[in-house]
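Suppose you are handed a protein chain with no further information: no name, no annotation, nothing but its sequence. What can you learn? This example shows the usual starting point.
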Amino acid sequence: MQVFSATLNQMFVLFTFMALGYFLNYKSILPLNTSIAVSRLETNVLVPCLVFNTFYKYCTVKNMSEKWLYIVYGLAITVVSIIIGVLLSKLFAKDSYLQKIYTYSFAVANFSFMGNAVVLGIFGEDILFDYMIFTLPLCLYVYSFGTASLIPKKENQKNKFSLKVFLNPICISMLLGGVAGITGLPIPKFLITAVSSAGACMSPLAMILTGFIVANFSLKKLLRVKRIYLASILRLIILPLIFVLVLKLIGTDDSIVMLTLCATAMPLGLNTVVFPAAYEGDTTPGASMALISHVMSIITIPVMFAIFI
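A reasonable first move is to predict its three-dimensional structure. Written in C-alpha cells, the prediction is:
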C-alpha cells in the first residue's frame, strides 16, 4: 500500500504540469505557436543538455565495469522491445509514418521523463543510479534511430536512410557526454551546473507542452480512437507483464526485474508529440496516445508496482 500511495502521489505531481499546459492554451494565455517554439527548445537545447549530463555522469569506466550486467539486460530488453514494436505497428497502422509512431511507442515507454521521476520519487537516488545504467542502451536507441524516425519527411523526400539524420544536437550531445564521462574530462563546475539545470527543465516543460498540444484538439475526438486504448493496455500492462514473468521464470535477480518493470510499465512516450511538433508534423496521433495512456497510467503504474515490487 505504501508503494501504491507513493507512486500515485508522483503521478499526480506529473499531471499537474500537463493540466497547467492545457490551461495555458485553453485560456489563450500563450499564443498558439508556442508549441512549435517550446518543442524546438526541447529538442535543440533541453533534451541535449539532459542527455549530455546523463552520459557524462554515468558513462564512466567504474560504472561500466561494475554494472555491466545491468547494461546487458537493458540491451536485451531494448532489442526485444524494438522487434515487438515493429511487429505490432503493422497491425495498428497502414500509413508508413504512423507505423513509425507506433513502433516507437511500443518499443519505448516514457522511461526517461516519467520513469526517472517515478523511480527517484519512490526509491531514491541509489536506485535511480542503477536505473540510469540499465536504461543506457534504451537511451542510445531513443536518441539515435528512435528520434530520427519521428522526424516527418518533407513531401517528395526519398525514403532513403542517411547517417546525416544522426547529425543532430541530441546525438552529438550523447557522443560528447559519453566520451567526457569515460575519459574523465574535467569540465568547469559552473558549466556542468548550467547544463544540469537546463536538463532538469526538460521534464516539466515536456508535460506542459503535452497538455498545451492536447488542448488544440477536441478531447472527445482524441478519446474516440479505440486502437489507442488497446495500444495503451499493451504498453502499460501486457508488455511489462510479459517481461517481468519471463525474467522471473529464468531466475533473474529481483533488482533487474524491478528495473525492467520501471522501464517498461510507463505510458506511451512524449517524443511522439515533441518531435512532430518541432518539425511541424501531425501531432494528433501523439496527442491522443499521450492523453489516453497517461491518464490510464495514474492507476496502472501504482497497481503494477504494488503487485511486483
